[in-house]
Amino acid sequence: MIRRDALLLGLSAALAASLPVLALDRALSPEEQQLIADIGTHNSAIRTMVGRFLQIDTEGGRTEGTFFLERPDKVRFRYNPPSKEEIVSVGRGFYVLNRSEETYYAYPQDTIPLRQFLGDQIDLLNANVLDVTSADGYLTITIIDDTVAGTVQVSLIFDVATKDLSQWSLVEPSGSELTFSLYDVEKDVEIPRSFFSIPATYKGRDPSAQ
Questions:
Q1: How many CB atoms lie within 10 A of CB 112?
Q2: Angle at CA 112, nearest 5°, toward 111 and 114?
């Protein structure tokens, strides 16, 4: 079973937290502040992005797939077979699609903080930062955020040289962990409009029944 809710929570906390900084127990150095600001500016400037992802859960289960992102407000995660699921945002909500059953269910856009990452600007300096560390050419920003499922903690790992997001690790409210890595990423490429739509043949389902 795909950890679809964890994926949404991980993305939301990872790149879209909008709470004031409350948790960090030290002042960021000017160099750290500048680097974090530069990371936000760099990622905000990327209008489209496609690539592959690897998701690893607490038990070591591995799930791969492809993703497509277009700012503002559009993203699609397509899990590889044998999974038949996809997660799609079409600008007014997040939808979990089942390709086999041709069904979907929705999360309102305004209840998932991922909506801020899909917007025009990313501002990690105003996230609820718990810790900032650097090692081996990577900067790790750990943040906490209140989501629809409870408080989550996410460690974001950015490549200092490119300022690209390489990986994030999520600790869910239950204590379970999820790691999500990006690779083979291409930026500012044309994505067909159909990638951010739900086929007319798909029928809606109640998410509480999942």
A1: 22
A2: 150
Q: Are 157 and 165 in contact (CB under 8 A)?
A: yes
Quote the radius of gyration of the chain (alpha carbons, Å). Answer: 17
Residue type, 35: L
β-bridge pairing 74-79 and 62-70: antiparallel
Nearest one of 146, 168, 147 to 157, comparing CA atoms: 168
Looking at residue 47, its amino acid is R
Q: Which helix (H) or strand (E) holds 14?
A: helix 4-16
pTM of this prediction?
Answer: 0.77
- Whether residue 78 is predicted with pLDDT greater than 90 in this model: the reply is yes
Pick from 43, 42, 36: nearest CA to 11: 43
Confidence class for position 207, pLDDT limits 50, 70, 90: low
In Å, how far are 9, 35, 43, 49, 98 from 183, measured between CA atoms? 20, 22, 16, 11, 25
* Average pLDDT of span 152-172: 88
CB atoms within 10 A of CB 52: 14
Count how many residues are written for the chain. Answer: 210
Return d(Cα 107, Cα 8) in angstroms, integer.
10
Interatomic CA distance for residues 207 and 107, integer angstroms: 8
